[in-house]
Amino acid sequence: MYARSANKLFAITLGVTRNHAAAEDVLQETYLKIWDRAGGYDPDRSRPLAWLCAIARNTAIDWYRTQSRHRHVGEERLELHKSEAIAADDRIIAMDRERSALAAVEELDTESETELKSIFFLGLTYPEAAERLDLPVTTFKSRVRRTILKIRKKLTDD
């Protein structure tokens, strides 16, 4: 079996690993798996070589996944990826904007504040909030839109 399948299986493992030494290791592991699973082979489901190739391919893919998880990231790779962390000055600016927005909401009349908070703070949908406040949905949407525009104008003026 080894003599008839080794070249084909090695080609598969080399194609996935792209490393000659690793492909040899994966091929050895493949034959160990074949030996362990030989009793489970079902000739009605696949041809013998197809079964061997599937085991080799899956073993090589498992090896590849393991390697990519444990690969050391070099400095050149770090420079390619921007940090997802927010810079301190950006966080301060965002916090200041948030405080200004909350202050602008607090300055609204009670009715507008209630409408806006029902959408953005309570997480209600427009129909749910409109029903809760006993308003037609279109009227409610228009009022919220006007309130948002008022707040936006206040924030850009400040």
UniProtKB/TrEMBL annotation:
Belongs to the sigma-70 factor family. ECF subfamily. Residues 101-149 form the RNA polymerase sigma factor 70 region 4 type domain. The keyword DNA-binding applies. SUPFAM superfamilies: Sigma2 domain of RNA polymerase sigma factors, Sigma3 and sigma4 domains of RNA polymerase sigma factors. It holds the Pfam family Sigma70_r2. The keyword Lyase does not apply. It comes from Qipengyuania qiaonensis. PANTHER family: RNA POLYMERASE ECF-TYPE SIGMA FACTO (PTHR43133), RNA POLYMERASE SIGMA FACTOR SIGZ (PTHR43133:SF62). Keywords: DNA-binding, Sigma factor, Transcription, Transcription regulation. This is RNA polymerase sigma factor. It comes from the Bacteria. PROSITE patterns: SIGMA70_ECF. Residues 1-69 form the RNA polymerase sigma-70 region domain.
